[in-house]
Amino acid sequence: MALAASCRGRVGLCPLLLLPVLLLFLPALAAGPAGMLQPRDTPSRERRELGGLWSFRADLSPRRDAGFAQRWYRQPLRQTGPVIDMPVPASFNDITQDPSLENYIGWVWYEKEVLLPPRWLQGDPAPRVVLRFGSAHYYSIVWVNGVQVVEHEGGHLPFEADISSVVQGSPGALCRITVALNNTLSPHTLPPGTIQYMADKSKYPKNYFVQDIKFDFFNYAGIHRPVVLYTTPAAYIDDITVTTTSSDSVAMVQYQVSVVGSTANSLSLSLRDQEGKVVAAGDGPVGELKVLNPNLWWPYLMHENPGYLYSLEVKMKAQVGRVLLEDVYTLPVGIRTVHVTSTQFLINGRPFYFHGVNKHEDADIRGKGLDWPLIVKDFNLLRWLGANSFRTSHYPYAEEIMDLCDAYGIVVIDESPGVGIRLPESFGNKSLQHHLAVMEELVRRDKNRPSVVMWSVANEPASELPAAAHYFKTVIAHTKALDPSRPVTFVTDVNYALDHGAPYVDVICVNSYFSWYHDPGHLEVIPLQLTAQFENWYKTYQKPIIQSEYGADSVPGLHSDPPMMFTEEYQQAMLREYHSVLDKKRKEYVIGELIWNFADFMTSQGTTRVLGNRKGIFTRQRQPKAAAFVLRDRYWKIANESSCLPPVITSHSLFL
Fold this sequence. Notes:
- The protein has 11 helices and 33 strands.
- By secondary structure, the protein is α+β, with helices and mostly antiparallel strands.
- Helix 7 runs parallel beside helix 8, helix 9 (about 525-540) packs parallel to helix 10 (about 570-585) and helix 10 (about 570-585) packs parallel to helix 11.
């Protein structure tokens, strides 16, 4: 559910408004690479993670521009003034006791000094050295040894730079990485935001401003995902694209491989099963592999062996000068198909019902920073719950999370950061072009993942505005052109008769909060209103429907009988009312239900939020509320109804 919120800024000019001026003085950058393969250790590649403590400094100057005016990137950050230790990956907001940093808006600076192995800098030709960020929120400019190497807009997708020419001439193999990061949002960013100046000097300090946002989660900032240095040969495999088709006894794996640095002398591919046996082989940059009696990739609870992954090993040999170089890359591949009818969502030709959750990358202290114990705990809870799917609300999640979805058979609706698109100016051409670029980055990153069965381009936009028709027609068509193999949707909370974007989606995803935001406290209205919602949408569009959000806030330990809002009993009662309608409609054209939310999460402060949004069925610390057991019983019941597994499966027999 998207609600308006704001973050307070200290005195000073809006930091993002300085961006156009600052960028006038930055050198032009070359276009990014076509590929964005996830860094992996292979016989020809090495990787080194740079997690740990980085030096950190917030720019507290009145205009937030001291770092650029004084060129902090040209020297160690500690020489520019006071620095503190900052963990990476993590959000910076909740790490210290400084309230001004918790709500800081503007430029912050990170720095890490590392020594590179001498073998990375030697050879003729020497290896290619690449610096990669899993994500940093929101606008990043990166220098290595004082030389700018990359800039990137967007807080949830990876970016990288070839830094070979910079580090190969550095004395002692020193690599000083400096990052300037700005978390300010504008009407044209994704997600959007606005800066509002408070001009009444009797109430606010001079130049006081707030960052207004139209989404209901905290605008955490920082280097949120791993920073990695990795190497490839000078000629290397740049990108791999895989699609699959299958029948009962045969599967075809179509592939396309791109190479950079030289024309490949040879390119060979081997597809291995989980025992290491080669089941198909091919050569050349474009082709297909024939797999007999394939092990299909099945969702969790649809098969006794969900998430089956093959390994596609790609080997390239290329002549560079007098040297024959070899590059090897291994890509996990799941063989599965997706098809949508007017009433069903089919995976491998079988009806699939989404019984899952919406989530957030959110936790105490670390904010949105990647955290392995938390990730593993969440997947254990998902499987305990009997959930087979989730939506990456409301931005792309970390690659490490997506890896586990592939491996465990958890189905994903992969959503862009297009949340809070509410203002008319956010539907203009500037916003549209950025949205198209973000979808290109998202598809490029996740196109080969079997767990990703559908793209979502936005959540709860103002799709009742006339401009939304062209906007979403264009974004959806562009996404389909990038990836014709998957359906595309966006998530709406607009009345069926007013939505200008719905004609272009493949699946209708609807958010509704009857008896919460509408008719609060009146559980008795849910059956009538929810039934009308489904029937009106289906009569209008004849497309399958997912209840993509529903839920109620509950404070753990707060009880009332009869149920009252914010108690655990009310959350349970609301779920049961929704489920009674869903049970009728899932026999017709409703293909899924995703609870809002998996766990409580932080939001901006407001009169409707007590330490964040409390709609989780788990607390922020991942302890179950009463509603978790209601949902668990339901999801295991649905799984037993639709599973090809023996009916002895129970909520107690797997993944306790």
